[in-house]
Structures are given as C-alpha cells and as structure tokens.
Design a protein that fits this description.
It comes from Paraburkholderia aspalathi. By secondary structure, the chain is mainly alpha-helical. It has helices at 2-57, 62-72, 76-81.
Amino acid sequence: MTLLKDRMAATEQKLNALKEARKAADKARRKAYKESKADRARKLTLVGEAVLRRVERGEMDEAEFKQMMDEALPRPADRILFDLD
C-alpha cells in the first residue's frame, strides 16, 4: 500500500510541477504579447511623427500626403482629423 501511495504522491508532484511550468509559460507569453503590442503602437506613433514633420518642412508634398491618407483611412472620424471629407 505504501508503494502505491508513494507513486501517487510522486505523480501528484509531477502534475503540480507541470501545472506551475504551464502557468509560468502562459505568463511569459502574455507579457511578450503585451510588450510587442506596445512596441507596435510606439512604432506607429514615431512613423506618424516623422511623416508629419516631413509634410510640415515641405519635404513631402501635402497633396501627396492627403492622397495617401485618403487611401488609408476608411473611418469617418479618422478622415475628419485630416480634413478628407
């Protein structure tokens, strides 16, 4: 009987270790996803700032910029920001 109990205890320990490892892996995956999402948002902001700076300095034609935004923005609220409608 003690052999059976020992095996069950060992199996239970292995199961708990696997559960903990799974929780740690899930947590790491969620953290990586959150960081990648934040990095993407930061990149979008920086690209937008760079493009707007070029338009302001005259390095990019404003008509070309408006055409680009006209093609890229389907939502009415976004189009209003750039006076496209």
